[in-house]
Amino acid sequence: MNYDYVIAGGGSAGCALAARLAENPNISVCIVEAGGKGRELFIKMPAANGFVFGNPKLDWGYSTIPQKSLNNRSIFLARGKALGGTSIVNGMMYIRGVPTDYDNWKQIGLSGWGYADLLPYFKRAETAKHRSGAYHGATGPLKVEESVNFGEIDKAFIEAAISAGHKHLDDFNACDRTGVGRSDSTIKRGVRQSSAIAYLQKKPNNLKVLTRRHIAKILFDQKRAVGIETTNGEIIKANREVIVCQGAFGTPHLLMLSGLGPADHLISHGINPIVNLPGVGQNLADHLDIPMQYASDRMDLSHAQFQRLDKAAALMGRWLVNGSGPGGGALFSSILFHSFDDPKQPELQVFMTPMIFDENFEDGQRETSPLMQRIGRRLLVRGRAIARPGIKIDINLERPKSLGTVRLSNSNPLTSPLIDPNYLSDQRDIDDMVKGVKVMSQIMEKPEIAQYHKGRLGPWTNVNSDAEIVEAIRATAFTGHHPACTARMGVESDSMAVLDDQLRVRGIEGLRVCDASAMPSQITGNLYATVIAIAEKAADMILGKQPLKPERPEENAYV
Predict the structure, then answer these.
(1) SS3 for 149?
(2) Does residue 309 sit in the same domain as residue 363?
(3) CA–CA gap between residue 167 and residue 179 (Å, rounded)
(4) What pTM was estimated for this model as a whole?
(5) Is residue 143 situated within a structural domain?
(6) What is the CATH classification number for the domain harbouring 472?
(7) Which single residue of 39, 132, 166, 222 has CA 20 to 30 Å from 493?
């Protein structure tokens, strides 16, 4: 099989990139994806996220090596395994990051990657009919709507945050990004907008999609990429370029399996280095998440009520009819960004959820739920992730100083890589997280939200001192599921840069990377919107088009 462009990985970036490249009828494009077509009902239904998360048919289900600073716990890392990649399992939050994220990229010498350069691509990708003005698009494939699961506790949380001095925001993707408000979601009339759903609904004849093919390695002629080989020996040739779109874990894994990476590491696994690229698999940045739990008996206001068999059936029926009701909405509806010093660069992203999750009940805790609730749990969640009424506060550290690695376990492409985020290895991250817990504790004590809860639960019970907060963090923290930067762009003088500012792999012709691994540094917020914008821009680069004209709407919210 021969195609002009072979895209290794049909994830968030891969689907968007393929669709844009295929708009040129004179070229042929092929996506090669390890998972399936991503058409499952539970992918399309936003509230059914729990049936995708951790499902081995739809989730790669990676785990970290034991994390020393998290009491030697291994942390589960969900990554989508189907067309759409992790956009089939993400929280559907539509957040673009803050302008300084991208301006910092430009300031280190990456021409064309500032906020003004990327804004037109965010807009080209987006349809947000509830938004207007210079920051939003109205004709793009990616549909964005205001969150629908916005209830009484969400309103109380926002009011409490305002009472504590936080600014109310209507739009987190406009000029001001620090404050609290209702979130936007990548959902259209109750259907999750994965990149496959958004970009591949109408597939042109010059776009071939191959699923259930695990890529073993990239093929080279000398130092030019000429195709890929799957684990079953199938060879797919690329006449022009191979573009790797396998994400922050999969991309460095494939590059190293193919002979591109730290030479000594490759040799130790019996792989002949084609180009010594020491930055491959380095610089792993992820948003660490602190889940604070608060007790409540308000089942009527909790998403946990839908584990009752009768309520679950009603929710599913309503959603199947017209995509309406709670089944068509994301889990998160209210969001807060907090800055310690500079409002242009918030350090914390906070999600509030009117529900808490436990893997199981604590020893001695009695099950007092109604019969239909107990039956529903048995049938619907099969003992996993039991939900209870309550309030969960997820505090994400947006600019981590602790960076990790992705390394080979062995030379077998079917073996997961060794992932070490190295969480909390830098004391500055611990200090920021402690400050974040104190900020959120103050909000949760405000009467607007305090009337809905009965105090903290689990390791957070009776936690007051800094030392106690640190111990609670070490006992509970996990990933925010936003890994990036493991094959990052950089300038010529940066020895750890894997890519140039055109996303081309250094030392190799005909090979690019297009996904979150290419980010030079971590952004503020969820990654999906940014990954899509990178893919949109990459398509123009690859096709030799003039980049969209930079846009910089007047930003006056910080004066």
Answers:
(1) coil
(2) yes
(3) 5
(4) 0.94
(5) no
(6) 3.30.410.40
(7) 222
